[in-house]
Write a structure and sequence with these properties.
about 190 residues, mainly alpha, two-stranded parallel ribbon, about 0% strand, globular, binds zinc ion
Length: about 190
């Protein structure tokens, strides 16, 4: 496995690098080699950043796409602070608990060892460890997402959080849902 280089001009909206066998790219947020593509809306399993193509030249901008209210700069700061792109009062930060944070730290330690090692054989063995550590992290996360009641409650908390950050959001959301419903009537609607 090698860590692919991204052209310095990367970061323009529309950056697109397809996956190739045994190549990983650094996540623009946490800088760990978690991504198999660039600009293809992969979600980083370490920091949760969704790779919409944003990178250094536009890091301070809030694009409002899959990363919602977060600039890349803010998301990086949050990851450095608590291993997650989201603010600590954002319900999405609940994705993590002690078990997931522990699994993240183990994976990050292996990535650091890969970066600091020049011996190809040692690096390949470390990549093997990294893939296993990624699986372990996924298992911990799936335990959280498998809990439907927790999942629904988090959705409600998220709406309240977004209304606090962007007053009027709920009203705008209701309006667009009403428009959508009117255009897509379901059986039984009168
Ligand atoms: Zn990341």
């Amino acid at each position: 496995m090698i860590i692919g280089k991204v052209h310095p001009a990367a970061g323009h909206y529309g950056i697109s690098i397809e996956s190739q066998p045994n190549v990983r790219y650094r996540c623009p947020c946490c800088h760990h080699p978690t991504l198999e593509t660039r600009g293809h809306f992969e979600i980083c399993e370490l920091c949760n950043w969704e790779d919409d193509g944003q990178d250094d030249p536009y890091a301070d901008e809030v694009w409002g796409g899959p990363n919602y209210l977060y600039s890349l700069t803010q998301a990086r700061h949050n990851f450095t602070d608590h291993l997650n792109q989201y603010d600590t009062d954002d319900p999405y930060c609940d994705d993590d608990n002690d078990a997931t944070r522990g699994a993240k730290r183990r994976l990050m330690a292996i990535f650091d060892a890969i970066e600091n090692n020049t011996d190809e054989e040692v690096r390949e063995a470390l990549w093997h460890d990294a893939l296993n550590a990624e699986k372990a992290l996924r298992v911990e996360r799936n335990k959280r997402f498998g809990d439907r009641a927790w999942f629904d409650a988090r959705g409600q908390q998220w709406l309240a959080y977004r209304e606090r950050k962007q007053p009027g959001y709920l009203a705008r959301r209701e309006k667009s849902i009403a428009i959508w419903r009117a255009r897509h009537p379901r059986k039984g609607d009168s």
